[in-house]
Amino acid sequence: MSDEPDSVEPVDANVTAPLHPSNTGSGYLRLFVNIDHVATLRQARRGQEPDPIDAALLAERCGADGITAHLREDRRHIQDADIRQLAERITSRLNLECAATSEMLALAEAIRPQEVTLVPERREEVTTEGGLAVRRHVTLLADSVTRLKRAGVRSSLFIDPDPDDIRCAADLGADAIELHTGTYAHHPNDPATLAALRDATDLGRSLGLAVHAGHGLTVFNVGPVAAIDGIEELNIGHSIISRAIFLGLAHAVREVRDAMDLARARPS
Does residue 3 belong to any structural domain of this protein? Predict the structure, then answer.
């Protein structure tokens, strides 16, 4: 391997680099790179670097089909200004993750990212620990989905691979669901965890939902999930940023992109 990886090259924001082909075929799986933890490192010093916007632009150049950023209510990593800059500067698609609050929905209506994924939040949690309690918050989520539709923003609900929650998400009029893959990530050798994701994908698609997936996925465990026919998009962040420390961001994005493509290319 070269001692001078191209990932250390400065990002020229004035150059529009070629992106990976869009999902025009049923076999292609989109990769959205979550840049939250670039901002986590920046916020450790409350400084200017590393810049998550530069990370997003580089990720696009190296195979990302979109960028995901979670604006939490406590602003522990991504900040409002980051979301505004991402919306202005990236050339792919922006997936804003946020809680279903009036504040966050108003921001989404103003910025109008291509997609908003509604996620659960608890201030004391280190990271998102599970899917939305969809059936417990039907009115809140229905109102949120309606507001996003009126703003022309695609809506997605981050949920566990639970059949009742999937049916409820469809009833609420969501455009997509993102399946929480945390249980699989913790128990990748348990066939039941992968079977649950397969069944959830089949059910979601049968109800007219686009199916995405994410949480805890890495270059080492992404293959079986990427191989599930019907999943259109994976959101991966922490592992990519972690490996970027040692390998460079360009390498970390490309190796995940390659692992996803390889999994999709294998005969089922």
Answer: no
- Is residue 156 within 8 Å of 176, Cβ to Cβ? yes
Taking alpha carbons only, the member of 217, 249, 253, 251 closest to residue 235 is 217
Position 27 scores a pLDDT of: 86
The number of residues in the chain equals: 268
Catalytic center residues:
70, 97, 215
Cβ–Cβ under 8 Å, residues 134 and 166: no
Contact in structure between 213 and 160 (CB atoms under 8 Å): no
**Neighbouring C-beta atoms of residue 85, cutoff 10 Å:** 15
User: Does residue 2 lie within any of the structural domains?
Assistant: no
Any idea what the Cα angle at residue 205 is, between residues 23 and 35, rounded to 5°? 50
From CA 41, how far away is CA 30, in angstroms rounded? 26
d(CA 14, CA 233): 28
> What pLDDT is recorded for position 65?
98
Unique residue bearing structure tokens 């913790």: 186
CATH of the domain at 233: 3.20.20.70
**C-alpha R_g of the chain:** 18
pLDDT tens per residue across span 123-135: 555 455 689 999 9
How far is CA 58 from each of CA 23, 66, 103, rounded to the nearest angstrom? Answer: 20, 11, 30
Read off the pTM.
0.88
Please indicate, yes or no, if residue 215 is contained in any of the structural domains: yes
Q: Which domain holds residue 159?
A: 28-241+248-265
Specify if 106 maps to a domain: yes
**Per residue in 25-44, pLDDT tens?**
458 999 999 999 999 999 99
Residue 203, C-beta contacts closer than 8 angstroms, at least 6 positions apart: 163, 166, 167
Q: Which of 190, 197, 191, 195 is nearest to 213 (CA)?
A: 197
